[in-house]
Every structure is written in structure tokens, then in C-alpha cells.
Amino acid sequence: MPEPTSSSVAGAAAAYKAFGGTAAAIASGATLAAVVVMLMTPPRTRREWAVGLISTVVSSVGGGAAVIQYFGLHDWVQSQVGLMAMGGLIFACGLPGWAIVRWVFNFIDKNREAGIDEIARDVKEIL
Question: Residues near 16 by Cβ (< 8 Å), separated by ≥ 6?
């Protein structure tokens, strides 16, 4: 059985080659940024945790599948490195789901007493 450190380094090197240098840096940077955001804004309640978890899983599966389909990455299934890369892509697609749902719920909580005209005005200003 290979030593865990050497196999991890080999896997990272293979993923780096599979993605390409610049793309790997962008993907890992975006993923790390999303993880930091999730760690810096932990859920306040169990309900928020459940909604965050569900939204992350749904956006991982749906978003990851959409990205794989759009870019035609189906050939990656033929190798282990390709499958690991797909897993990383699917994981990365799930991270924005948590942030988007949190932003929407915070907006709804902030405007709980507002009328539809005030909400429309706020949304218009934001967009």
C-alpha cells in the first residue's frame, strides 16, 4: 500500500495537470474562498443549517451536472483522475448555493414588514 502523503501529492499533481495550471489555481481559490465564507458565517439555527445543507446538495448535483453537460466533460468518467476532478467540480458548484440561500433569507428577514412596493424598490436598487 502506498504511503498516504506520496499518493496525495500524486493525486494533486494529476488534478493540476487535468485542470491546467491557471484553471486549477482559479478553481482552488474559489473553493477556498467559499469555504472561508461558510466558516465565517455559520448557521444561527438548526433550521438554517438544514436549509443550507439541502441547498448546497441540490446546487452541487444540479449545478455540477449542468457544468459537466455544458462543457462536455463526460470523457472524464473514463479515468480515476477525471472522476476526482468531476467530484471537485461538483463540490465547487454546491458552495454558492449556501451563500445565495443565506443572502435571500437575510433579505426576506430584513424586509419582513415591508410592502411589495418597498421590496420592488429595494430589488430595483440592488439590480
Answer: 24
